[in-house]
Amino acid sequence: GESVGLHLPTLSVQEGDNSIINCAYSNSASDYFIWYKQESGKGPQFIIDIRSNMDKRQGQRVTVLLNKTVKHLSLQIAATQPGDSAVYFCAENIPGGGADGLTFGKGTHLIIQP
Amino acid sequence: NAGVTQTPKFQVLKTGQSMTLQCAQDMNHNSMYWYRQDPGMGLRLIYYSASEGTTDKGEVPNGYNVSRLNKREFSLRLESAAPSQTSVYFCASSDSWGNNQPQHFGDGTRLSIL
After folding, report:
1. Per-residue exposure over B22-40, b if at least 16 CB sit within 10 Å of its own CB, e if not
2. What is the pLDDT of residue A3?
3. What does the alpha-carbon distance between residue B99 and residue A11 come to, in Å, rounded to a whole number?
4. Distance between B61 CA and the closest CA of chain A, angstroms
5. Does A5 or A21 have the greater pLDDT score?
6. Torsion on CA atoms A6, A32, A36, B43, rounded to nearest 10
């Protein structure tokens, strides 16, 4: 079954606001998580990753938070821009799952309102 | 910096025809992967190559074969295309298998089987 999912299929935010995209995972053994951005007609683009020994990791305008207690992952995008419009999905690594054990979620479509 | 390059970008086949999808990466990565992406579903792994000279089945290998031609190139072959194989196919690579490294994707091949 789907062990990585998203709370909302579509998220609409105003340009300049912060965006928060959520992801739930069900496998407590997962030790590595990745967020990808996929624009229309393009392949998934790596944004940021985090290992299970961390709670938070920051990149350029993005922050990933990991709450292992409730098996929840979130991606925060600061000062959302039109170029942030895309589908965002998370992936988790399940140790011993083969092929890096990555399981991908279905994605959240982020829409930026002018 | 090309990253992962896939050819062709689009292809239409008739049922029963054969086709090879090409993938090359210039990042000196050891591991390569083939996924399919269908509407409403996450990326599903078809085959992967943990290192040059090895290939293994993923979640949905039936109807496909692969060849790891060298460290740079990993091809996917459909011997007898079926309408169920209509999908977008993505190739990816990562520095190493099972070492919690992100996978980097090409822009995909959009394949329609009539």
Report:
1. bbbbeeebbbbbbbbbeee
2. 41
3. 33
4. 13
5. A21
6. -70
